[in-house]
């Protein structure tokens, strides 16, 4: 039944996912925040919620436009299920905004496959990564993804390699001008600290570590299975999957480094994670097995969410 619903891209799929995500968001918010009734706080959270819901639609656009998957909603489904498993992640506004801008950057990098307006797309992607780094400083490592995309699609043009530096200059000029107007000139120096403290507190949180390890291992195995079974796909699709796998690897590195600084932007890894989980379900040929995997995924996600609430 689930495969029959989310195996297509009908509007009802997104009504269900967005509606569920809307309810989940406010449940988590009012459960986590003490001053949740303050009007200013609720207004700010509402903006974060709009960005989160819009992210689901952008993900659907990216995977379908770039033919990463067939015409289905499995990636969007797994994106929401990952949020359910790590429900605390949506209480972090920085993670929501950071994830959204990284998604926009990835969208531009994947569109390089058309080999049109390459310099403009590289500039856009670099700017989106830099904007994302305003929420988590270690996110600036995603500039590596920009250069890898240049190497993959058009490495022989020297100007392409220089475009990110132009974007950095533009970003610094604009951001510094804004900071001068707001009388906060030292913000960039204070923000980009790139702290790496001790891992003792991180390792002590067994519940979080268990979920993260299982998530990373499961996604890694799924990604490997997808690559092994995707040999018949066109070169363009394989390259897109490789780029997304690098996206996932960098996101895991950023999460680990951020954990050492006392932060947890796990949400930034949900897009590539959902791509591989959704792609794996798509390539399962037997309908009964596909249904079992989907039902198991939904059950596990709800079980983990319920267990988190009971343990708290």
Strand-and-helix sequence, N→C? HHHHHHHHHHHHHH
- Quickly give the structural class: mainly alpha
Note poorly predicted spans: none
Question: How many angstroms does the end-to-end distance come to?
Answer: 33 Å
Number of helices: 14
Determine the fraction of residues in helical runs and give it as a percent range: over 70%
Major beta sheet, specifics?
A: none
**What is the number of domains?**
1
Annotation, overall tally of beta strands: 0
If you compute it from the alpha carbons, what radius of gyration comes out, rounded to the nearest whole angstrom? 20 Å
Q: How much strand content do the residues show?
A: under 5%
Question: Secondary-structure map with pairings?
Answer:
Layout: H1 2-6, H2 11-32, H3 39-65, H4 74-85, H5 93-110, H6 118-132, H7 143-153, H8 158-181, H9 187-191, H10 200-204, H11 206-229, H12 235-260, H13 270-283, H14 287-311
Helix pairs in contact: 2-3, 2-4, 3-4, 3-5, 4-13, 4-14, 5-6, 6-8, 7-12, 11-13, 12-13
Structure summarized in a few sentences:
With 312 residues, the chain is mainly alpha-helical. The chain has helices spanning 2-6, 11-32, 39-65, 74-85, 93-110, 118-132, 143-153, 158-181, 187-191, 200-204, 206-229, 235-260, 270-283, 287-311. Helix 3 runs antiparallel to helix 4 (74-85), helix 3 (39-65) packs parallel to helix 5 (93-110) and helix 4 packs across helix 13 (270-283).
């Amino acid at each position: 039944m689930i495969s029959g619903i989310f195996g297509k891209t009908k509007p009802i799929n997104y009504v269900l996912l967005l509606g569920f995500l809307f309810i989940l968001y406010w449940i988590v918010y009012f459960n986590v925040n003490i001053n949740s009734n303050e009007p200013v706080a609720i207004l700010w959270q509402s903006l974060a919620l709009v960005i989160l819901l819009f992210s689901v639609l952008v993900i659907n656009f990216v995977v379908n436009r770039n033919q990463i998957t067939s015409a289905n909603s499995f990636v969007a489904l797994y994106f929401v299920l990952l949020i359910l498993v790590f429900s605390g992640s949506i209480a972090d506004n920085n993670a929501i905004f950071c994830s959204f801008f990284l998604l926009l950057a990835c969208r531009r990098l994947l569109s390089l496959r058309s080999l049109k307006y390459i310099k403009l797309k590289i500039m856009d992607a670099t700017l989106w990564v830099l904007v994302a780094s305003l929420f988590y400083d270690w996110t600036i490592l995603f500039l590596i993804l920009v250069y890898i995309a240049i190497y993959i699609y058009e490495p022989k043009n020297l100007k392409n390699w220089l475009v990110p530096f132009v974007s950095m200059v533009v970003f610094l000029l604009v951001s510094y001008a804004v900071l001068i107007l707001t009388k906060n000139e030292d913000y960039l120096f204070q923000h980009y600290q790139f702290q790496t403290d001790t891992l003792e507190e991180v390792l002590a949180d067994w519940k979080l570590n268990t979920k993260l390890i299982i998530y990373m291992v499961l996604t890694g195995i799924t990604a490997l299975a997808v690559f092994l079974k995707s040999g018949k796909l066109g070169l363009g699709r394989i390259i897109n999957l490789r780029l997304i796998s690098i996206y996932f690897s960098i996101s895991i590195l950023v999460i680990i480094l951020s954990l050492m600084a006392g932060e947890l932007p796990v949400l930034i890894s949900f897009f590539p994670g959902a791509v591989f989980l959704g792609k794996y379900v798509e390539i399962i040929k037997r309908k009964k097995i596909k249904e079992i995997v989907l039902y198991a995924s939904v059950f596990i996600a709800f079980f983990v969410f319920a267990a988190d609430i009971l343990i708290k």
